[in-house]
Design goal:
The chain is mainly β and 414 residues long. The protein is built from one helix and 30 strands.
Length: 414
C-alpha cells in the first residue's frame, strides 16, 4: 500500500486527494485551497494527508537553486511493505500523470527505500496546478501505484503581485479600525478564483457579505520591516456573474501597538497605520484571467462599530454605529466613503504563510457563575485557554458591557 504526501515549502502550496473542503471556507495551507481529484482508486491505495516540512531541510539538496522556496518536498508511505525503488512523475495534466507521464518532472526508476524527494524538475510556474503520482516496487517485486495527488503554486515572487499597498488617510494613533471595499464586475462563468492577501496588522476578508475562510488573526506575526506573510483563499463559490464586492477590515495586531506594551512594541520601527495588499485572481471557463488588485479605486471608511482594537486588551465595539450595515454587499451605497492612499511595501520579502492557521476549534460553556453585585458577574470556564467570548445581550441603548478575562481569582472570589 502506498500513501502519498505533499509538503509546503515557501511559496509553493500543496493539496492532496483527500483534502477537499468547502471552498467558501477558504481552507488553505500556505497558498493552497483544496479540490478533489477523482480517479479510480485501488482499494489498497490512499492519500495520506498533509504535513509541513522545515524550509531549510531540503536546501542542501538543491544544488542548482538559490533557495528551497520554489521546490516542494513530495513524500509517500508504503504500509506494511518494504520499498525497493520508486518512479515519480509530475505533470500539469491530470490524465497524463495518471498514465505515468511527467512533462514537468519524471524521476525514472530510482533504486532506494527513501520515501520523500525534493522536487527537481522544470521550474514551477506561478498560479499553476500540478498533478503527481508515484509508483513503488517492493522487495518482494510487488508494484503499487498511488492515486494522483495535486499541488498548486502561489505568487512565487513579489514581481507577480499586481496590487498596491493601500491604507486609509488616518494616522497610526487614530483608534477606529479602517474598513475597505471594492466593487467589481464578473463578466463570465468563473472556473476558479483565488484571493491572495497580505497585511501590516490583521485582516478579515469578506466577499458579497460572507466572511472568507475560518482563520483567525491572519497573517502571522513577523518582523514587519523584514518580512510580511500573505494568505491564499479559494473564493470561487462566493462569486457570481455581475456585480460583486470584496471587503476587508484591518486590525492593529502587532503592527500598530497603540498602547504601552512589554518589549516596547509601541516604539517598534515598523509601526504604522494598518495597510494591505491583495490580488483577487479570477480564471474563467474559457481560460481568460482577470485580476482585481488593491489600488486607488478602493473606498475606505472608519465609521464602523469597531472603534478600538488592541492585541492585548481586546476590542471596543459600538453597536450604536450602524451606518455600515451591509457595507460589504453589492447593494450598499458607499458614496459617503472616502478614498485610500498608497503605502510603501513594509518589507522587502512578501512570502506565503506556510503554517496551520489559528481556528475556532471548540465551544466551551461556562461551568459556573458567581454574582458579586448587581453589575458584576464572574463566569468560570473550568480551564485555562485562548479564545473569544460569545455572549447574548439584552438591554437599553447606550448600556456599556465590559468583558474582562483573567487566569486567577482573589481570595474573595473576585
Amino acid at each position: 500500500m502506498v500513501c502519498s504526501r505533499v509538503n509546503c515549502r515557501g511559496n509553493v502550496i500543496f493539496a492532496n486527494k483527500e483534502s477537499e473542503k468547502k471552498s467558501n471556507r477558504g481552507n488553505c495551507l500556505g497558498n493552497l485551497c483544496f479540490k478533489k481529484v477523482k480517479y479510480h482508486e485501488d482499494k489498497n491505495l490512499r492519500i495520506d494527508g498533509l504535513r509541513f516540512c522545515n524550509e531549510f531541510d531540503g536546501a542542501k539538496k538543491l544544488k542548482d537553486r538559490t533557495s528551497c522556496f520554489d521546490a516542494p518536498r513530495l513524500s509517500w508511505q508504503t504500509l506494511g511493505e518494504s520499498q525497493k525503488s520508486y518512479a515519480l512523475v509530475v505533470d500539469t495534466d491530470s490524465v497524463a500523470a495518471a498514465a505515468g507521464n511527467g512533462s514537468a518532472w519524471s524521476t525514472g526508476v530510482v533504486e532506494t527505500d527513501k520515501q520523500n524527494v525534493v522536487y527537481a524538475g522544470k521550474p514551477l510556474k506561478p498560479f499553476t496546478t500540478y498533478f503527481w503520482r508515484v509508483e513503488t516496487v517492493g522487495k518482494d517485486g510487488k508494484t503499487n501505484v498511488s492515486p494522483v495527488a495535486r499541488f498548486e503554486t502561489g505568487m512565487m515572487s513579489v514581481k507577480n503581485w499586481q496590487g498596491s499597498w493601500i491604507s486609509d488617510n488616518n494616522s497610526r494613533d487614530y483608534k477606529p479600525a479602517p474598513y475597505f471595499r471594492k466593487t467589481f464586475n464578473v463578466e463570465k462563468h468563473v472556473k476558479t478564483a483565488r484571493a491572495y492577501i497580505s497585511a501590516g496588522g490583521l485582516f478579515t476578508l469578506s466577499v458579497n457579505g460572507k466572511k472568507v475562510g475560518d482563520h483567525f488573526l491572519d497573517p502571522v506575526y513577523t518582523r514587519y520591516d523584514r518580512r510580511c506573510k500573505y494568505v491564499t483563499f479559494d473564493v470561487t463559490s462566493l462569486l457570481h456573474e455581475g456585480i460583486n464586492v470584496v471587503g476587508v477590515v484591518l486590525g492593529n495586531g502587532w503592527y500598530n501597538h497603540q498602547a504601552f506594551a512589554v518589549w516596547d512594541f509601541e516604539r517598534a520601527p515598523w509601526r504604522q497605520r494598518p495597510a494591505m495588499c491583495m490580488d483577487l485572481r479570477i480564471t474563467y471557463d474559457d481560460g481568460s484571467v482577470a485580476t482585481v488588485p488593491t489600488d486607488l479605486s478602493w473606498r475606505s471608511s472608519s465609521d464602523g462599530p469597531l472603534v478600538y482594537n488592541n492585541i492585548y486588551t481586546g476590542e471596543h465595539y459600538d453597536f450604536n454605529k450602524n451606518s455600515l450595515q451591509g457595507w460589504d454587499t453589492p447593494e450598499y451605497n458607499d458614496s459617503k466613503w472616502g478614498g485610500v492612499r498608497l503605502r510603501q511595501v513594509p518589507a522587502p520579502i512578501v512570502s506565503a504563510q506556510a503554517m496551520e492557521p489559528i481556528r475556532f476549534v471548540e465551544d466551551i460553556a461556562a461551568k459556573g457563575m458567581k454574582k458579586l453585585n448587581d453589575s458584576t458577574y464572574i463566569y468560570d470556564f473550568g480551564k485555562n485557554m485562548a479564545g473569544v467570548t460569545t455572549v447574548k445581550l439584552r438591554g437599553d441603548s447606550g448600556t456599556v458591557v465590559r468583558i474582562s478575562h483573567g487566569e486567577r481569582l482573589h481570595k474573595d472570589g473576585s
